């Protein structure tokens, strides 16, 4: 019986060692896997934290830039409003002065024609009809700071006071006409200067306003770009924050799991060592008991029959239970040279034709043709009208140039904006595609970890079932063995006590000559050997009792440890499932962002192509005459110089005056 128990303990030790080897491999693989996952998680967490800090700083910078651009836009808008108000007042003043000058020129021309129609001297009485005209002209000249001549003022003074000199005092008509023509020329020059100043002022206003408008547009574009950058950075921060939360939660779960796994594996290792030692002690006790029984009890003719053992020789195998698995063009001024004196009409026509040919001016050529057939007075009117038209054309061209500059600047802004948009979108696409690949890796990794956790839980459950069965079996067998040993102790104890009692016999003295019979009383058995056997059996019984107690405690500890493991595994599975769902949602969202970015990229490409087409059309349309704005300005100024020289010739009296034109 003891030999069978010894063999059984050996076999159970082998099974327990095989089972524990699997658990030890689970511990080693789990610790290695979780340690690697924690290292990767800490690296990812540090990377996300650095990205969050960088994006937060960039968002703050973009916010400051937005505020700066907003203030810049507001300042430029205030400047535009101020310039617009000042220009409106200037236009009103220009229109009033132009109307006054135009009316004064017409009145003076009428007065001059009236005086020229008279062939005799002009008396004060004959001047009365033009008194109002001259008076208004003098007032306008004063208002415009033109400083009319003293003779003009004398005429006006006499007319305004109503004084009538003696009949022998008269004004010569040529002197009066000359005075009025000087005043008219002053008014005409003033009107030309007024038109030119207005054209220059309008060009300056339009240029300044266009510059401010362009600055507003640029600042608005920059503001919108900073606003978009802020939105993009905020979106990145939201994504990174979500990833940071998920990674942190997963890292914490892995750390807790590893801690629990280390604790359980350490506890199991210590407990396994104790179990191995107890089993070794048990085998030693059994071996000693068998030896004693064989050497001191077996073979004794008085030994009870239950002590007889078979002669089948056993060869217990030696088992090492501690062995476990570890495993612009230039301008030429025109200057008249000395010529053979000609009539004023002929000189004017010749001047206009020569300048028309030199400047290739259609307007001057048409004017020369008209001057050959029109009355002398009409030629001067035509020249004045053409001068006025050229001045107005200069203002219109300034407007046209402003329009072209404005539209070209806007189209260039569109081109540059969409070019940057394409670059930024491509960068976002690359970033999001990289993120999608990383998220796919995360999801796949979490799938593998969930599968691994499920398998480990299954293995742990299987191990617990086997361990429980083994512990129950050990307790049951130890209980039976203890009972059997206690029974043997009882039998031996009763036997030796009875034998000692029966061995006491009342005897008579022996005869002196009787030989020695070899005993004097009844046989009491081998009391010394029996006591040793009983003492050894009592030790074996106490070992069985200790085995029962230790195994019951080991079972209770194993059950608690398994419960802790399954709880930790359940928490880890739940955390990883949440992390997997979060990564899957982020993966889906990233896919939608890539789709939107691809659509935005195509839209930006189309807008860029449209902007390039607009720039090409504007460049062709704004230079359709084959001349640049600067070249047209030089040609127009030369035409104006020729016209003014022609007008000077027409208005000169005598060849000596005309030679100064």
Q: Which tags fit this structure?
A:
single chain; 661 residues; mainly alpha; 83% helix; rod-shaped
Q: What does this molecule look like?
A:
The chain has 661 residues and is mainly alpha-helical. It has one domain (2-122, 172-307, 343-502, 524-658). Helix content is 83%, strand content 0%. The protein is built from 11 helices and no strands. It has helices at 2-116, 124-127, 131-143, 150-161, 173-297, 344-359, 362-373, 376-502, 527-622, 629-651, 655-658. α1 (2-116) runs antiparallel to α5 (173-297). The longest helix has 127 residues, at 376-502. It is rod-shaped. 22% of the residues are buried. Residues 162-171 and 297-342 have low confidence and may be disordered.
- Work out the helicity level: over 70%
Figure out the total of helices: 11
The proportion of residues in beta strands is: under 5%
User: Which word captures the global form?
Assistant: rod-shaped
Rg calc: 62 Å
Q: How many independent structural domains?
A: 1
Q: What is shown here, in short?
A:
This protein has 661 residues and is mostly helical.
Annotate the secondary structure layout.
Blueprint: H1 2-116, H2 124-127, H3 131-143, H4 150-161, H5 173-297, H6 344-359, H7 362-373, H8 376-502, H9 527-622, H10 629-651, H11 655-658
